[in-house]
Predict the 3D structure of the following.
Amino acid sequence: MTLLDKFERVAAIRATLNRSAHDPTQVVIEQILSATEGLVAGRRTILAGTNNYLGLTFDPACIAAGQNALMHQGTGTTGSRMANGSYAAHSALEQELAAFYEMPYGMVFSTGYAANLGTLAALLGPGDAVLLDADAHASLYDGCQMCGADIFRFKHNDVASLERRIKRLGERSRNCLIVTEGLYSVLGDCAPLRQIVEIKRQHGACLLVDEAHSLGVFGDQGRGVAEAQGVLDQVDFVVGTFSKSLGAMGGFCVSPHPELALFRYVSRPFIFTASSSPATIATTREALRQLRARPELRDDLWRNAGQLYSDLNTLGYQTGPEISPVVAVRIGTKDLALESWNRLLEAGIYVNLMMPPASPDSASYLRCSVSAAHTPQQVATIIEAFRQLRDSLPAQNLQADN
Amino acid sequence: MGNHQKQRTQTATLNAHQQAIEAQIKTLLERYLEPRWAQDPRNRIAVSGSTNLTSDLTLDSFQVMEFMMQIEDELDVVIDINSLSDVHTVSELAAIVAQQAAA
């Protein structure tokens, strides 16, 4: 049974989570009541940790588009696009994304994870070098690791750390891809893309930006952090997901480089998986239309984000360095974080619990994500739950250095 | 100088280089661990080449990564993280850093 012995360690870790009333890894939302509410353990619960940034999961137009696709195109594509051919809607979405980003080439993948894997694995090969933000998402690590390139990490969002390393690479910097997230998904801070673009230019490197959490959130037109910082036209590859602000499932890559059109011949995570269901593509296309047509969704989102961020800080919580729809509250120890997460759930608030090794340092976090669909009353309820939690915590646990 | 002898000299130079790096890594490691040792002196141990980074020093995966980036900056090298998968001890780490520094 040696193959299975390694699970003893997993079982031991799970046992520590089971000790609390609710296990954060086994939350069941018994009923989805709206984009911002669900029934958890029989209780009406505000969903404040589901990355539903624009609240489009119950948008009537998106639902109608999905229903229509189900009726007229069926339940699934039953295979990969390379083998079975592409449904017209999949190709149309690729063109719509490319047009949205004002880049000539676009490619759609079945998940956000596959988009990162598929883009990186196609782009990189043995002998190439990657400069990867040390706190980047697992899908970016996995994509880099799939392709045999040499991986060098720089400190999270630290321009000096990146610059030192690209200088050490010398001539190799011309075969080098810099990889970073626009909005960091855990703490909600933005990459300094203006400076990164400058370093990229000086050293002749390429830049890939993952806008998974920033699509529909940042920029005048909602295209992400690169747009917000005015450097979108200098990014070589933008990747992102449909599963957050677009409320669907899938991922994409857009690029000014014509070679992107050739990725579909070499990208295994693209070739060897079934393409998204027609209904998924249809709701994604409609959500993208909504994102473009209703900039007021972003106003609502940022109003809620600003409220939650400033009120949690006023309560004495330590949050990320800047206002964004991702608001992460630092809690010193694992045990205290687990206990706090349980209390919030008992109070009818669902947030994400981030603990090492999934958190960016040795601390734990209660990570909230705000939605445009949260009402001001719901935001106030979330803040009130955090106030009650604070009053029950020992004071030193709110300090920065615990 | 015959080929064989030349090779031996090169190996000796590499070993000396690696030993110098190992000494530097030990110093950096002690400096990195000092605040925690000061907090709880029971954890203090003498770091040697065979010291295991995770089991002997109880560094978690985040701390190992953080320490690697400090080594990169202090020794002015870059370390490919793929090369770290078989690294467990201080000596093994020194061998990888010496290799990358020579590349």
